[in-house]
TrEMBL record:
Alphabetical keyword list: Dioxygenase, Oxidoreductase
Highest taxon above the source species: Bacteria
Swiss-Prot/TrEMBL GO biological process terms: DNA alkylation repair
All residue ranges annotated as the Fe2OG dioxygenase domain in the record: 97-194
GO MF, one example: dioxygenase activity
InterPro entries: AlkB-like, AlkB-like_sf, ALKBH3, Oxoglu/Fe-dep_dioxygenase_dom
The protein's name in its UniProt record: Alpha-ketoglutarate-dependent dioxygenase AlkB
Keyword Glycoprotein listed: no
Keyword Oxidoreductase applies: yes
Source organism phylogeny: Bacteria, Pseudomonadati, Pseudomonadota, Betaproteobacteria, Burkholderiales
Length: 196
């Protein structure tokens, strides 16, 4: 196998903080976000017609932090209080600065996100993306493009997964469906996008 010539299996450049928030703080943040975020049902054009995304989304950020995601032009809404608190905490631990966040609300195990990398040009070459999880735990898979190697994390409530370096360039990630799961989950991915 190719990676053996370079000394072992590939590993994604991630930092993993499974107990980043106290459980009660994570539970409170989830309830606040359900109310304070302007959740939208986005659609995406596919060869088979227009489809609803299997999750609700929200987008907040500084003015000018416009972001095109899966062909959707996202104008950021104003930051809301709970999101700003989490942003400050994520900036403190990563030593990065974020000017926007994509929020994903998985209403149950039927909601999901397919394989993708966050590689839009406005994110730059080696983006730092801080992913905060609240509520029902969901599996997060990373798959190495060149070798197919898989790494999985159980994204529990209050956890923080920081993706950095070549993670977006060399890996894809997804949140697969979780059959039978009734609990709701909210995920926030803090990013820095080049303002325009
Ligand atoms: O919900 C998650 O954990 C992943 C979210 C994600 O990949 C994204 O927002 O780009
Ligand atoms: Fe992503």
């Amino acid at each position: 196998m190719i990676e053996d010539m370079f000394g072992g299996a590939p590993e994604p450049a991630v930092d993993w903080y499974p107990r980043w928030l106290k459980p009660e703080d994570a539970a409170r943040a989830l309830l606040n976000l359900v109310d304070e975020v302007a959740w939208k049902q986005d659609t995406i054009g596919t060869p088979g017609g227009i489809k609803r995304l299997p999750r609700l989304t929200g987008w907040q950020g500084d003015p000018g932090a416009v972001y095109v995601y899966s062909g959707i032009r996202n104008e950021p809404l104003e930051w809301t209080p709970t999101v700003l608190e989490l942003k400050a905490a994520a900036e403190a631990v990563t030593s990065a600065i974020f000017n926007s966040v994509l929020l994903n609300r998985y209403r149950s195990g039927d909601d999901s996100m397919g394989w993708h990398a966050d590689r839009e040009p406005e994110l730059g070459e080696e983006p730092v993306i801080a992913s905060v999880s609240l509520g029902a735990a969901r599996r997060f898979d990373l798959r190495h493009n060149a070798t197919g190697a898989m790494r999985s994390f159980q994204l529990t409530s209050g956890s923080l997964l920081v993706m950095r370096g070549r993670t977006q360039a060399e890996w894809r990630h997804r949140v697969p469906k979780a059959p039978g799961l009734v609990g709701e989950r909210i995920n926030l991915t803090f990013r820095f996008v080049t303002p325009r």
